[in-house]
From TrEMBL:
Gene: LOC115378099
Keyword Coiled coil: yes
Protein name (database record): DnaJ homolog subfamily C member 7-like
Domain of life: Eukaryota
Keywords: Chaperone, Coiled coil, Repeat, TPR repeat
Matches recorded under Gene3D superfamilies: DnaJ domain, Tetratricopeptide repeat domain
Coiled-coil annotated spans: 304-343
Length: 470
């Protein structure tokens, strides 16, 4: 890393034509890493600019000794010989250089073909760059590089290469195919088909363009069928159609991300929430910037009461797009997460969050009878302690859910803003059991005017339980 740093500084001075400073930094790079051919070649170039050709020749020869395939080293060696009047030596080097160039181009082409078969597209791009450095006008190499850039998702670079070729040769079917391929993978399917058709017009036997055109048309048709089925509320059919669309071309990342998200939306409609989450996860794996997929997955997590996961997704969305809507969704998920960590009074009573007053009362009667300590007087001390705890929770839950104001605050999470929540103070059914089973004096003398009817019911029912067991 230090040697590369010196080299970069040397390059900067070379560009500024400060060759003395460039020489100093290339020397530092060599001292740090003496086995790197390019450092010697760079210093040789600097020495040539300083007209120090004998030293430049030595550096060029050292570069070639370290890497016999390093073409710049051979070229600079030949130029140094020529500058020093060594015509025969220069001719010999240039002959070797040309021979090695041809051999190198063949080798890079062979490696690129092997890499393409193995779908190692980065290796193909690397090999084509090396080959083009020696055969800069070869359209075949440029097309192969552009196609692999498209397959790597580097669409602007691929389009730039294809456009350069089309400027010189507007009828080049391979370049038209690459342009279409980029548009196809960017989910601009209609425009892509136009390029594929044009490529086939120029070369009717262009198999890659034919296959891509067929896939593009099939993908568009199947996706539109799925969308229509969804609009018609035929969710089972939509799910199947999106599944079929996903099988058409695994390489089309952007379109497949949308298809996974669409299928996730359908899955949510079909109450297949786990499957919907899996599909949305597949979508964001393909496209990490896909906001819609994060939002859909977050909503599924909310529906499953997996609030930590929902908060994480909404945070990702809000960090990407800081809108009021996204902020509201995040705040709501954070509130639900806090609420989920407190005692769930609805679960304590075994009722839904939309339960009526009568349903809450009935549930309270049932649970209070079930967990009343006197019902478990013959149980072990551990069981008695657990049942007493549950009995108190039942009373606490009823105290909150039977009071309209407390219930609203509880439902909205406002109790989380209080230090003590709803615990302690207020109307507490457990004041009914002072001593063995005595009712509090306040109840025996009649409830104060401020008591609401549900608290009176709670106290009355608790006393009825006491009399039931005694």
């Amino acid at each position: 890393l230090q040697a590369e740093g010196f080299k970069e500084q040397g390059n900067a001075f070379y560009i500024k034509k400060d060759y003395s400073e460039a020489f100093n930094y290339y020397t530092k790079a060599i001292d740090a890493c003496p086995k790197n051919a390019s450092y010697y070649s760079n210093r040789a170039a600097t020495l040539m600019m300083l007209c120090r050709f004998r030293e430049a020749l030595e550096d060029s020869q050292q570069a070639v000794r370290l890497d016999d395939c390093f073409m710049k080293g051979h070229l600079r060696e030949g130029k140094c010989h020529l500058s020093l009047g060594n015509a025969m030596a220069a001719k010999l080097v240039f002959n070797v250089f040309q021979h090695k160039n041809a051999a190198a181009v063949q080798e890079y082409e062979r490696m690129a073909e092997f890499g393409f078969e193995k779908r190692d597209f980065r290796k193909v791009v690397y090999c084509m760059d090396r080959a083009l450095a020696l055969a800069s006008a070869c359209h075949r190499f440029k097309i192969l590089k552009a196609e692999c850039l498209a397959l790597l998702g580097r669409y602007p670079e691929a389009q730039s290469v294809a456009s350069d070729i089309l400027r010189m040769d507007p009828t080049n079917a391979d370049a038209l195919y690459v342009q279409g391929l980029c548009l196809y993978y960017e989910d601009c399917i209609d425009k892509a088909v136009q390029f594929f058709v044009q490529a086939l017009r120029m070369a009717p036997d262009h198999e890659k363009a034919r296959l891509a055109c067929r896939n593009a048309k099939a993908l568009k048709a199947k996706k539109e069928e799925g969308n229509q089925a969804f609009k018609d509320c035929n969710y089972e059919a939509a799910y199947q159609l999106y599944t079929e669309a996903l099988k058409i071309d695994p390489n089309n990342i952007k379109t497949n991300a949308k298809l996974y998200c669409n299928r996730g939306t359908v899955g949510a409609k079909l109450k297949k929430l786990d499957q919907a989450i899996e599909d949305c996860t597949s979508a964001v794996k393909l496209d990490e910037t896909y906001i819609k997929a994060y939002l859909r997955r977050a909503q599924c997590y909310m529906d499953l009461e997996q609030y930590e996961e929902a908060v994480r997704d909404y945070e990702t969305v809000y960090q990407t797009e800081k809108t009021k809507e996204h902020k509201h969704l995040l705040k709501n998920a954070q509130l639900e997460l806090k609420k989920s960590k407190r005692k769930d009074y609805y679960k304590v009573l075994g009722v839904g969050k939309n339960a009526t007053d009568d349903e809450i009362k009935k549930a309270y009667r049932k649970r209070a009878l079930m967990h009343h300590p006197d019902r478990h007087s013959a149980a072990t001390p551990e069981v008695q302690k657990e049942e007493e705890k549950k009995f108190k929770e039942v009373g606490e839950a009823f105290t909150v859910l039977s009071d309209p104001k407390k219930k609203v605050r509880y439902d909205n999470g406002h109790d989380l803003e209080d230090d003590g929540g709803f615990g302690g103070g207020g109307n507490n059914v457990f004041d009914l059991t002072q001593g063995p089973h005595a009712a509090p004096a306040s109840f025996l003398c009649g409830p104060p005017p401020s008591y609401n009817k549900n608290v009176i019911f709670l106290q009355t029912f608790s006393l009825s339980i006491i009399h039931f067991y005694h």
